[in-house]
Fold:
Amino acid sequence: MTDDELEQLVASLAEQVQRLEDVEQIKKLQRTYVRQLADRQWEAMLDAFTEDAVVDLRHHGVRHGREEVAELFAAMHSHGDPHDGYVLSSPVIEVAGDTATGVWTWHRHLCEFPVMGATMRVYGPWWEGRYRCSYRKAAGRWRISGMHFRVVLPDRDLEPDEMRERAGRGEEVIRGAHRAG
Structure:
């Protein structure tokens, strides 16, 4: 092996190692975000996002920048403290320099439901969702620059335009899911 070939090999290996380290850092970032969500650590969750992040979580509307994301988390906090569980899995992450994209499967195991002035605990119901995220690395640290989340199973979330269209036709609109058929 020539010196040039050896240098090329070392450079290629260094690039591969950096990409693997970046993927692992992104996985840790996303896992930490979901753990903080499950633990209702709303303020700590903000640190996962870039200043100019764009976040679209289900039917909460699109939020631009950390200030609007903080308002979203404050609104979510005001809806109580359910004891649901979350599982995050199946990441597909693509790194391109200091930017990356990721798609994740999310499962929420629901257990508490509001009923007539009380809370009913039921074990077993679940949702499956998809996070579609973009990430940006700055000063050696990865953060979420874009987040799109929708429930996909057992009933998928309707997009806002679909909800308006159905409501305009006088159809019943169920926030958070739609019934197939």
In short: Residues 177-181 have pLDDT under 50 and may be disordered. The first strand starts at residue 49 and ends at 57. The helical segments are 3-38, 42-46, 65-77, 160-168.
